[in-house]
Amino acid sequence: MLRFEILATDGHARRGRLTLNHGVVETPQFMPVGTYGTVKGVLPRDLEAMGAQIILGNTFHLWMRPGLDVLRAFGGLHRFEGWQRPILTDSGGFQVWSLGGADGKGRRITEQGVHFASPVNGDKLFLTPELSMQIQTVLNSDIVMQFDECTPYQTAGHVTTEHEARASMELSLRWARRSKAEFERLANPNALFGIVQGGMYEPLREASVAALAELDLPGYAVGGVSVGEPKDDMRRLVAHTPHRLPQGKPRYLMGVGTPEDLVDGVANGVDLFDCVMPTRNARNGHLFTRFGDLKIRNAKHRADTRALDETCTCYACRGTTLPDGSVRGGFSRAYLHHLDRCGEMLAPMLATIHNLHYYLNLMREVRAALDAGTFAALRERFAADRARGVD
Amino acid sequence: MLRFEILATDGHARRGRLTLNHGVVETPQFMPVGTYGTVKGVLPRDLEAMGAQIILGNTFHLWMRPGLDVLRAFGGLHRFEGWQRPILTDSGGFQVWSLGGADGKGRRITEQGVHFASPVNGDKLFLTPELSMQIQTVLNSDIVMQFDECTPYQTAGHVTTEHEARASMELSLRWARRSKAEFERLANPNALFGIVQGGMYEPLREASVAALAELDLPGYAVGGVSVGEPKDDMRRLVAHTPHRLPQGKPRYLMGVGTPEDLVDGVANGVDLFDCVMPTRNARNGHLFTRFGDLKIRNAKHRADTRALDETCTCYACRGTTLPDGSVRGGFSRAYLHHLDRCGEMLAPMLATIHNLHYYLNLMREVRAALDAGTFAALRERFAADRARGVD
Questions:
Q1: Cβ of A69 and B303 within 8 Å?
Q2: Which residue of A144, A272, B170, B380 is surrounded by the most CB atoms within 10 Å?
Q3: Smallest Cα–Cα separation from A352: which of B314, B346, B350?
Q4: Residues of chain B with CATH 3.20.20.105
Q5: What's the CATH fold of domain B2-275?
Q6: How many degrees, rounded to 5, is the angle at CA A67 between CA A62 and CA A70?
Q7: Nearest chain B residue (CA) to A299
């Protein structure tokens, strides 16, 4: 099931509430990525405590490991990974694309589906819209993504032409119809989202939007952005496509992006985001803060007793206040720098808590501004704060 | 300061309460090891929530990184690492020993101290009893260990002779006196422990005990066990030395050991233990459970929906019950197996929580049995349960 209410709007921006089988998601919302059934480096209870309302799983990875027999034994992904709130899974299309390599030789696409070799053991595999739906039904994901071909920006140096992008987009449309038919045949009780493709070409994007809208799916995503294209192209597409999707349905911008990209996406009518950036960058010592980004490996942090971000309320920056009023935790830049330098696991653990809290909190502030009718002011303050740079 | 009360005894075993500058430690107690200012893979708040009352830090490592200037800026180790309860630091002697390599060529020991090369940058370093006290004073450790020479079981295949062990033990005694003098000169407000040495030779151990007792230190440790000797030699020493130490003072068996070693140590009069085993083994997929040890990498766990240990109340096995009655977490053998196989950080994180909880809980059960006068029954049940093997 899926219910979507729009509570407030401001230009293209929307403040919404999405009700799924495993709970409610307030939008705009950021979804942490849990590829292999774990958001890397965070305990599920901490993820929940910091306000994550929905997380991602990757269909392709989970199909490979632990495999469907194991996931079936747990009745799906929720109990397996100890996460009670909603889960969205991708369709496997993007992974098949990225596994193909820069020259695309690692996979062969036919009308029926995609042939490729297992990255785990080299076995020949064949993924189709039907199989993707079957896997996502076993996972019992609250939001199931259609199987699509993620149109590359370029392949081995050759930028995808409009002709090629059209063929790819049309294939994704046919796969959308097959995904929908199989999803219905399986009597999957969750919600299927379509994915807009069309490469860097607005007319193709518009054709994709129109054809997908006819399928009357409960939600839609914009795919094929953040696939290696210049930043200006990404901004152009984000300004173009999301607000053209059906008004009353949730819109998901796949795989995007920086804090700036998220705020920009909201202004362009996006409701849901996912990105590995907060978790992956955390593991590389790259921290997002209100006043710009902070590279904890920089030697200048060596003896800095201040918090990563003194305005932040996450466990890494502020600690946890217990019922008796005592504070547990609250760590300094010097400590994070030291942990990182020593290769201690606690460095990525604390950095991941901080970065995910930053992203989730940014979306909380965006929702509050939309509720209060102050989104324009928030955007200005956000841009000024981030441009200020870390002290 | 240090106050030690013995609340109950059973043979050599003691149930005690140790009061230090940063709080109370119920004994017998296990101390998780936090070498570089972090118990690997655990958030400090989780360590506290699972009942850790005192943790270790390694003087040598912290002297190298982050360095004394940084630790001074934080007023010591507690605020730097976000741990409010007591901390014990070793003296650096063991690290200098282990850094020397199997042939001992990496260091040169003189009456004055130990010359060696920094493992971080190759700088020539010289560690003395006085410098060890100065570093531990900067760290503000609740329990400071004397600088000692950890007598090796063997060096390059040559088993340490009684003659060599005597010279080493006597050097450690002279360093104990110098440690005490410097500790007092620094007006360190914490507690200094002496370390019994003497290799595998009971007469030397007795001489060490007698000479250290004359120094009237507030606590004593048994060092130079678990240094590569056969297990029977270790058992012989643990049965021999601890109960010969001054009755009214806390006794610490350094670097030991398995769950069986801990219960055996308590029976022989030990109050405090530390060991890297629960944390290090966790990172290698070796889990301690009530019914024996479990290797999570074994393929037989692949689809096992059961908890690691169904009698365990840790977050990994049972989850956390929130005030509203909902449970967060509680993971299966299949999930841990999967995480480990995928190289996900959550595998060592959950395994570390489980293993530390197991060790801390075992000590809780031992204390409860000593309180209730049922320690003999507990030892029998413990041995039978562990021998049963994991289902």
A1: yes
A2: A144
A3: B346
A4: 2-275
A5: TIM Barrel (3.20.20)
A6: 115
A7: B66
Mutation target among B55, B300, B328 for the A interface, most CBs of A within 10 A: B328
CB contact under 8 A, B82 and A319: yes
pTM: 0.97
The answer to whether A84 contacts B326, with C-beta atoms less than 8 Å apart, is yes
**Using an 8 Å Cβ cutoff, are A238 and A265 in contact?**
yes
Cβ atoms of residues A226 and A175 within 8 Å: no
**Residue A14: both structure tokens together:** 């929307």
User: Which of A46, A148, A271, A274 is labelled catalytic?
Assistant: A274
As for the ipTM of the complex, it is 0.97
Q: Which of A306, A328, A354 to mutate to test the interface with B (most CBs of B within 10 A)?
A: A328
Which residue in the set B326, B338, B345 is minimally distant from A66, CB to CB? Answer: B338
Q: pLDDT tens per residue, chain A (391 residues)?
A: 999 999 999 999 999 999 999 999 999 999 999 999 999 999 999 999 999 999 999 999 999 999 999 999 999 999 999 999 999 999 998 887 777 776 777 789 999 999 988 888 888 999 999 999 999 999 999 999 999 999 999 988 999 999 999 999 999 999 999 999 999 999 999 999 999 999 999 999 999 999 999 999 999 999 999 999 999 999 999 999 999 999 999 999 999 999 999 999 999 999 999 999 999 999 999 999 999 999 999 999 999 999 999 999 999 999 887 778 877 778 999 999 999 999 999 999 999 999 999 999 999 999 999 999 999 999 999 999 999 999 8
Give catalytic residue positions of B. 90, 274
Q: How far apart are CA B55 and CA B32, in angstroms?
A: 5
> Would you say the C-alpha torsion A257, A260, A262, A267 has a positive or negative sign?
negative
